Q: What sequence folds into this?
């Protein structure tokens, strides 16, 4: 369904000629139809940039993105338009992702209008109302404005807007991190229900590891623009290979004080280095307690250690 | 009534949890516009401003139809009549002695009737005699101001009384034209100039700023540097130069004002759009596949409308002021058409004897400026969503 090959996105640094932010650097992965890939990593590691580069909000610096076998990374805006129908995005902040000057009906109908799907207003209304019903919002709210809704309701409006074109791939850019916990489950369950009903493929970005475990078939871990580990969801929790993944898992809060006391403290120390001048060799060596001279000098290769378990670390050569 | 009500055990049963209820929004459906109107109407100064503008518009656009005079109807014999006259009573008739020693007969309710003809002048005693029908009126100008002497006793000053001028309510100017009517026409010119100039500025500014911000990159830099260059030239100077090049008149004022003031509007629009361009709902529109026109006109501009409207309302008083200023320095509307600025300019020659001729147009300019500034303030508060209660 989706294949990403050596995808790279660098942003130029203002005022410093020739220097760039290495937001996303040589990412490879494949995603089959109906699967969910969860992407995790610290803030600023390039998860959102990756998502936005795949959906072509940003132009990729190099590398390719294949959607159903077609390379979409070099397409012009006009050539991209039919692709947009296959690929949609759900945004992080339900407050800023809906236009405050438009009614809900207009917001959800916008994709229909952009692709000229409906010929009559009645046809359009029917599709919009059906979609509203599917996300559990009453049709009587169609003429209200976004600011009148709660966060969870707004996120469902965002989902309705993304799904009304019946896309096959949906990129969820932290769709739940701006919501409170009771609503998070509601939204995630809604997303899962749509996946079953419409056979959707998700690229699910989050920093909540327990939520990622619940929704994902595969989990990818990102660090400073690199994908450091990628495998089946259960495998990564039971058998993490990369020291960074271990550290991340070690920092998941445990909802029981007794168990939490027994747990070791998080293994990762220090701050994420600057993506403008990332460390040489393995980018994690500055914070890795297993780091050797080799890690500083040589970048680890992206390799399949066991079946479907990819990792980039010299410890597992 | 209350005793009658029996609480039964069934009342304590929990209600069924209805998922429909959880999604219900109880608050009244209020549109954005409704919200703005609500917040605007709670600000007294803004309401006063709106009321003033409405009154001024009625004054300027409806008023002239009720006036017996036009802006260029002149009667030289009644020049420089103030709104309130000091009338001397001689044998039951009232006479107004103007500062340039003309005697004007009045009726007792303040209607000016005619200027009297001078019969004789005694240069040694500094006395003049005027004739009204069969009656003689003596003016003594030994002292300043001159006085009308009483009819019975040559050495006594006639009794005086202040009477409102009821033929020319706000007096006349140096050419004997009705001030009130000229004020109406002047306000009308000011309003029309201001509205058209603001509208043109708003359109140019929105298009220019919108394109600059939406295109971004090099286009943005070049377009904004052009704006910077234009704004370093003092706008007043620029307007004056344009006015000098073109011939006097209504059109050239509008062209001059419209071609200059869009600079600030372009900056405001550009700032707004630059911020909004990267907000998530615009990114969403792009991932949806909406075209640039939709994004610019359905997403960006409606969301930037608040500051644009405020800037536009603030632009109105400065355009009015500029028009008045141009009129004042003699570059504005060509005579005999009245404009507040030319009226103020005309008043300068007779400032000591007829100060009302300057104060009246000045007061109207003040009123207009006050009104628009109040409304602009109110709009800014009403459109700022952070002020929402």
A:
């Amino acid at each position: 369904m989706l294949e990403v090959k050596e995808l790279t996105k660098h942003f130029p640094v203002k005022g410093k000629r020739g220097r760039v932010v290495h937001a996303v650097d040589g990412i490879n992965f494949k995603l089959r139809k109906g699967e969910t890939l969860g992407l995790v990593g610290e803030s600023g590691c390039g998860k959102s940039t990756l998502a936005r580069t795949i959906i072509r909000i940003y132009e990729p610096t190099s590398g390719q993105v294949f959607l159903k076998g077609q390379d979409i990374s070099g397409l012009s805006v006009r050539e991209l338009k039919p692709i947009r129908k296959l690929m949609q995005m759900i945004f992080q902040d339900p407050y800023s992702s809906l236009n405050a000057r438009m009614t809900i009906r207009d917001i959800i109908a916008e994709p229909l209008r952009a692709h000229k799907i409906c010929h009559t207003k009645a046809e359009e209304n029917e599709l919009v109302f059906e979609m509203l019903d599917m996300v559990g919002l009453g049709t009587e709210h169609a003429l209200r404005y976004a600011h009148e809704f709660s966060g969870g309701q707004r996120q469902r409006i965002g989902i309705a807007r993304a799904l009304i074109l019946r896309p096959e791939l949906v990129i969820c850019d932290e769709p739940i991190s701006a919501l409170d916990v009771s609503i998070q489950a509601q939204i995630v369950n809604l997303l899962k229900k749509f996946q079953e009903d419409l056979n959707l493929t998700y690229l699910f970005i989050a920093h909540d590891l327990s939520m990622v475990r619940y929704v994902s078939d595969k989990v990818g871990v990102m660090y400073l623009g690199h994908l450091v580990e990628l495998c089946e969801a259960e495998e990564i929790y039971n058998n993490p290979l990369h020291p960074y993944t271990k550290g991340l898992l070690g920092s998941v809060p445990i909802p029981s004080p007794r168990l939490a006391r027994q747990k070791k403290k998080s293994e990762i120390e220090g701050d994420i280095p600057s993506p403008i001048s990332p460390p040489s060799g393995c980018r994690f060596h500055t914070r890795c307690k297993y780091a050797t001279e080799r890690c500083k000098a040589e970048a680890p290769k992206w390799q399949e250690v066991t079946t479907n378990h990819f990792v980039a670390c010299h410890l597992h050569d | 009534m209350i005793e009658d009500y029996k609480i039964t055990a069934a009342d304590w049963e929990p209600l069924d949890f209805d998922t429909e209820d959880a999604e219900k929004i109880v608050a009244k459906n209020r549109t954005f516009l409704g919200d703005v109107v609500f917040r605007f109407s709670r600000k007294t100064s803004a309401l006063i401003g709106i009321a003033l503008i409405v009154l001024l518009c009625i004054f300027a656009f409806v008023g002239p139809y009720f006036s017996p005079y036009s802006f260029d109807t002149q009667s030289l014999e009644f020049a420089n009549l103030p709104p309130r006259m000091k009338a001397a009573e001689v044998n039951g008739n009232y006479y107004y002695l103007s500062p340039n020693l003309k005697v004007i007969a009045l009726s007792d309710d303040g209607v000016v009737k005619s200027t009297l003809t001078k019969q004789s002048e005694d240069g040694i005693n500094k006395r003049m005699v005027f004739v009204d029908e069969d009656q003689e009126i003596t003016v003594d100008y030994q002292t300043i101001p001159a006085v009308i002497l009483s009819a019975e006793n040559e050495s006594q000053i006639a009794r005086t009384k202040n009477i409102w001028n009821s033929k020319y309510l706000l007096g006349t100017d140096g050419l004997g034209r009705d001030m009130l009517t000229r004020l109406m026409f002047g306000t009308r010119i000011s309003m029309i100039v201001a509205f058209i100039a603001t509208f043109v500025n708003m359109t140019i500014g929105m298009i220019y700023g919108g394109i600059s911000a939406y295109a971004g990159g090099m286009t943005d830099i070049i377009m904004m540097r052009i704006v910077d260059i234009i704004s370093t030239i003092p706008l007043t100077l620029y307007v004056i130069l344009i006015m000098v090049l073109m011939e006097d008149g209504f059109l050239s004022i509008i062209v001059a004002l419209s071609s200059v003031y869009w600079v600030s509007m372009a900056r405001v629009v550009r700032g707004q759009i630059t911020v909004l361009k990267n907000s998530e709902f615009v990114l969403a529109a792009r991932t949806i596949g909406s075209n640039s026109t939709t994004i610019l006109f359905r997403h960006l501009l409606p969301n930037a409308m608040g500051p644009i409207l405020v800037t536009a309302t603030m632009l109105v008083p400065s355009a009015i002021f500029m028009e008045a200023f141009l009129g004042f320095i003699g570059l504005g509307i060509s005579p005999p058409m009245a404009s507040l600025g030319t009226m103020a300019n005309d008043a300068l020659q007779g400032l000591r004897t007829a100060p009302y001729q300057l104060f009246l147009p000045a007061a109207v300019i003040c009123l207009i400026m006050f009104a628009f500034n109040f409304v602009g303030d109110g709009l800014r508060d009403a459109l700022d969503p952070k002020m929402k209660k």
